[in-house]
Amino acid sequence: MSESALSSSQKIENFELRRTPLYSAHARQNGKFVPFGGWEMPVQYSGLIAEHKATRSAAGLFDVSHMGEVDVWGPGAREFLQYLCSNDISKLYDGRAQYNILLNDTGGVVDDIIVYQRSPEQYLVCVNASNTEKDFTWFASHAASFSGSLSGGKVEVANRSADWAQIAIQGPKAREIAAQLDLPAAEKQWIASTVPFHFIETKLETGSGPARAVLAATGYTGEDGLEIFIEAPRAEWLWQRLIELGSPAGLLPVGLGARDTLRLEAALPLYGHELLDNLPASCASVNWAIKMGKEKFIGKAALERATKAGLPYAMFGFEVADRGIVREGAKLCDEAGQEIGWVTSGTHSPSLGKAIGLGYLRSDKVAKLDLGGVTALVRDRQLAVKRAAIPFYRRDSGKSKQ
Amino acid sequence: MNIPGDRKYTKDHEWARLDGSDVVVGITDYAQTELGDVVFADPPKPGTKVKKGDSLGVVESVKAVSDIYAPLSGTVVAGNDGLRNSPETINSDPFGGGWFAKLKPDSAGEFDGLLDQAGYTALLGEIAK
Predict the structure, then answer these.
(1) If DSSP codes are grouped into helix, strand and coil, which group holds residue A96?
(2) What CA–CA distance (Å, rounded) separates B36 from B40?
(3) Residues on chain B bordering chain A, Cβ-to-Cβ distance under 8 angstroms
(4) What is the CA angle B12-B13-B15, rounded to 5?
(5) Would the CB atoms of B62 and A4 count as touching at under 8 Å?
(6) Does ipTM come in above 0.85?
(7) What is the mean pLDDT of residues A162-180?
(8) B56-78, pLDDT tens digit by residue?
(9) In this structure, are residues A349 and A392 in contact, taking their beta carbons and an 8 Å threshold?
(10) Contact predicate A45/A255, CB 8 Å
(11) What sign does the CA torsion over A148, A150, A154, A156 have?
């Protein structure tokens, strides 16, 4: 058997790897640890397919404490965020969350983030684990030189990642499980009825005193559910409590392996795969989150130029029409064997029972997808790929879009 | 961790069992645990000639791809084509129904030189440290 397939068993001898407050809880639950973005994280517990399916049919519990949290505040904060972010920050109100792309000045992606408005002058930003330091520096250096014309300018930022842990509970039973936490009736009602992309700040009764928490109706699985920020010292209590409340309903702890198959079935982009710093973000099928009508924002001019010149690549979803799995990095070829693109993410889909993926094709070659002209090079074989509508999985129908 | 005494092992976590004059090959319980849920298997076709250490074919889990290495030189007599429809048998029955290929060995000596049950157990013990 190949060494690389055994890598999860190798001792993690890297003293630089960090652990979330939930590390011991994962170890107790037989989590298999792997290095991820500088963290030692569980890739699976009972098995990737079981964890994936539990999330789709009941509920999955995810440690996402490695994600970063940045506070942005001050009279200039709203205008500042409107300038740094791709989406329309003016649509935010207290308790509203919004998906955004941080663009660089070539129109490529610094990171994808979620912005939460606590008040018109106070925002929480959640960033990817692998980009926390980079994003904080990006915010801080722009804040230092920002002089907002409308607001009198002052904006401050702080990296609060060490203060917060984060646990996601996702799946059709996620809300009913979370609503059993010790909360006032109004907040239980909020959990049961909130529309996605809203949040509340609260205190969770932990049995040894109240814990600050943010409950957000957001997620990265294509399922309904919550992401819960909690002060780091109380994370283990919350994890154990949700396992206790949720296990009778079929909730399982879920590792990074199934987190990736879930998000890929939902065709949610991932920084470093679909979102790249050297490719115009408009290629990535996230145009719904880029509001070109905004007066000014970083990357706007570059995206206008790139669109006018013709975007070089287009993102698409595929399924594999031959036997095999096509993974990230695989070259995409035309009938003559010429390279015309690459695969950004690919896996076996547990819900659909087939191999799926996302990739970029040269814009002038995209039409070949529907004519049977595209193959993926996997080891020494050319596997036929055909276009698949994305998302591959939609929760309302409970099945694939095919 | 299951390590049957009726067969030999390689340091790459394959097993080899004598079946008449042929040798049946698969991956061990340790290997299938490390790999995770197997979703694709590509066993070799009969007639394929391999040298010891060549790849006999590939198994894929959701998160990893692994070659299965020939523990000895020989000719493939059969590949377990049942794995094409039920690759998960490698997880549920790695030493039985999850067999990967059957080889006719070029010589008897290579089989005898493989690790026995005690040798493979010791190898796993070293890895666990």
Answers:
(1) strand
(2) 12
(3) 12-14, 27, 31, 34-37, 39-40, 42, 58, 60-69, 84, 127
(4) 120
(5) no
(6) no
(7) 98
(8) 999 999 888 999 999 999 999 99
(9) yes
(10) yes
(11) negative
Please tell me the number of Cα atoms within 13 Å of A381 on its side-chain side. 13
Q: Are A48 and B62 in contact (CB under 8 A)?
A: yes
pLDDT tens digits, residue range A241-287?
999 999 999 999 999 999 999 999 999 999 999 999 999 999 999 99
- The verdict on a CB contact (< 8 Å) between B36 and A9 is no
- Residue A137's pLDDT is 97
Query: Which among A1, A49, A327 is the nearest to B14, CB-wise?
Result: A1
Question: B37 with B21: CB under 8 angstroms?
Answer: no
d(CA B32, CA B29): 5
Report residue A394 CA to chain centroid gap: 17
Partner-chain contact B36 A324, CB within 8 Å: no
Q: What Cα–Cα distance (Å) separates residue A44 from each residue in A5, A34, A63, A129, A239?
A: 14, 9, 11, 18, 16
State the Cα–Cα distance between residues A197 and A206, nearest whole angstrom.
25
DSSP assignment of B33-76: HHH-SEEEEEPPPTT-EE-TTSEEEEEEESS-EEEEE-SS-EEE
What digits encode the pLDDT tens for the residues A223-239? 999 999 999 999 999 99
d(CA B36, CA B27): 13
Question: Is B34 within 8 Å of A5 when comparing Cβ atoms?
Answer: yes
CA dihedral B50→B52→B53→B57, nearest 10 degrees, is: 30
pLDDT over 70 at A13, yes or no: no
Chain A partners within 8 Å of B14 (Cβ): 1
List, in order, residues 6 or more apart from A86 with CB less than 8 Å away.
A100, A101, A102, A103, A281, A286, A289, A290, A291, A297, A299
Q: How far is A348 from chain B (nearest CA, A)?
A: 6
Verify whether the Cβ–Cβ distance B34 to A9 is below 8 Å.
yes
Cβ–Cβ under 8 Å, residues A62 and A167? yes
Q: Residue A402: CB partners within 8 Å, gap ≥ 6?
A: A319, A352, A388, A389
A299: pLDDT strictly greater than 90? yes
